[in-house]
Amino acid sequence: MKRLAIWGSVAALLSSASMAFATNVTILTPYISSVPTNEMAQSFKAQGEKRGWTVSIIDTRNDFGQLASRMEDTINAKASAIVLISADPAQIGDQVELAAKSGIPVISLDGSKNANVAVNVTSNNFDLGTQLSDALFKALGGKGNIVKFFHSAHPGVHQRELALDEALKKNPDIKVIADHFVKVPGPVDDGRVAMENILRQHGDDINGVWAAWDDPGVGAELAAESEKPDAKFIIMGIDGSQQAIDMIKSCTRYKATFRQDFPKIAEIGAEQLEKILGGGKADKDEISVPAVMVTPETLGVKCP
Fold first, then answer.
1. What are 184-219's pLDDT values in tens digits?
2. Helix and strand numbers, DSSP H then E, in the chain
3. Model confidence over 40-64: pLDDT tens digits?
4. Among 245, 201, 243, 249, which residue's Cα sits nearest to residue 222?
5. Periplasmic binding protein domain spans which residues (predicted)?
6. Beta strand pairing status for 254-260 and 291-294?
């Protein structure tokens, strides 16, 4: 009996030690309904689980007050690390600083640099915005009227918008005749409803749609299909969402998207966090992952 009691005590101690050394990583995001954000979150979760981490995902549905509150909960629960996805650390600066003071490393995917964030892994969003603008303007022959879909609350998406502003200065014959701040969650539906209203107001005056990311661009195509199926404008966006790629492949008005490698962003983020949890440092405070342009031609499709 004594031997059984001793082994029971040893097992309890081992279990307690195992719990003490468990790696619990919490992903926090306000945008899980966005296809790219969800892809990053699920890819990072898979990467973490491969490393034996317990990874949980918290979504606050575009509520930054709730994001701050849930981050405080995560810090109080003594998480091993925090991963912010598609969020600007500056918007929850007090909580990010609290995590740093508590010894909890914070990394960011598709966010922005911050003194209390170990590394931000992202695409170069300003370059993406420039590439999108240049491609759209070239397809329009350097002149025409465009509709702009944007969301300045997201740091990366805002950089794309700033790139558009710069491109417009160099192309005075391109005019923004309508714009819309896209609501999240539900960016596809919000883009569709907004585009329906814009089509009723501007109709044939629209030559192109500049979508800061694919979801509202997809909504714009859906709106045209229902409201004005003979419309001749073209749509381009960023992210390479499956819906956008399917539309490009089907020779709709959607002519191009710049695909970010979200699984690669998540993979690099996990690699960097593994170094940090092992007592090391991230390679750099920001790591950029290249994007590629997707068109009917790159998909092997010949459109009429």
1. 989 999 999 999 999 999 999 999 999 999 999 999
2. 10, 12
3. 999 999 999 999 999 999 999 999 9
4. 243
5. 37-280
6. antiparallel
Q: Delineate the domains of the chain, giving CATH numbers in brackets.
A: 2-123+262-290 (3.40.50.2300), 125-259 (3.40.50.2300)
51-55: list long-range contacts, CB under 8 Å, 24+ apart.
51/23, 51/270, 51/274, 52/23, 53/23, 53/24, 53/25, 53/80, 54/22, 54/23, 54/24, 54/25, 55/25, 55/26, 55/27
The helix or strand, by DSSP H or E, that contains position 96, with its residue range, turns out to be: helix 93-101
Buried b or exposed e, range 122-135, using 16+ CB within 10 angstroms: bbbbbbbbbbbbeb
Query: What's the predicted TM-score (pTM) here?
Result: 0.77
Which residue is it, tokens 């010894």? 103
Give the model's confidence band at 21: pLDDT under 50 very low, under 70 low, under 90 confident, else very high. low
Question: From the CB of residue 271, how many other CB atoms can be counted at a distance below 10 Å?
Answer: 16
Is the pLDDT reported for residue 4 higher than 90? Answer: no
Q: Tokens for 25, please give them.
A: 């990583």
Strand partners, 235: 209, 254
What confidence score (pLDDT) does residue 14 get? 40
- The DSSP call for residue 2 is H
Phi-psi sector, 209: left (phi>0), alpha (psi -120 to 50), beta: beta
Locate 1 and state its tokens: 């009996």
Structure tokens at 119: 């590394």
pLDDT at 230 > cutoff 80: yes
Where on the phi/psi map is residue 104: left (φ > 0), alpha (ψ -120 to 50), or beta?
beta
**pLDDT at position 135 over 90:** yes
Q: Return the CA Rg of the chain.
A: 23
Mean pLDDT of 8-17: 44
Joined tokens for residue 82: 């925090």
Is 148 in contact with 220 (CB distance < 8 Å)? Answer: no
